Amino acid sequence: MLCKIKCPDCSSEGTISLLETTYDGPYKCWKCRNLYAIELKNGALQSCKPLSQEEFERLQEIDALRKKFRKQ
Ligand SMILES: [Zn+2]
Fold first, then answer.
1. Distance 37 CA to ligand 1 centre (A)
2. How many angstroms does the Cα of residue 35 sit away from the middle of ligand 1?
3. 14 CA distance to ligand 1 centroid (A)?
4. Which of 11, 20, 35, 71 is most deeply packed, by most CB within 10 A?
5. Which pLDDT value is given to residue 72?
6. 9 CA from centroid of ligand 1 (Å)
7. What is the CA radius of gyration of the chain?
8. Are 70 and 23 in contact (CB under 8 A)?
């Protein structure tokens, strides 16, 4: 499913594709390029925290690992 995320900084709406209706991971705004850690439940945004570049990259790695394990 596709989920709409509204950037808290510039209010631009971006979309991310999800395998499930819950998501806990990194999000990057396509417009202002701010980085966030977001939490979705039933496709609705629960929390959104600004991240540093380092934190974002770490979350991306964790997310990639999770996807990899899910496929096996
Ligand atoms: Zn933005």
1. 13
2. 9
3. 9
4. 35
5. 63
6. 5
7. 12
8. no
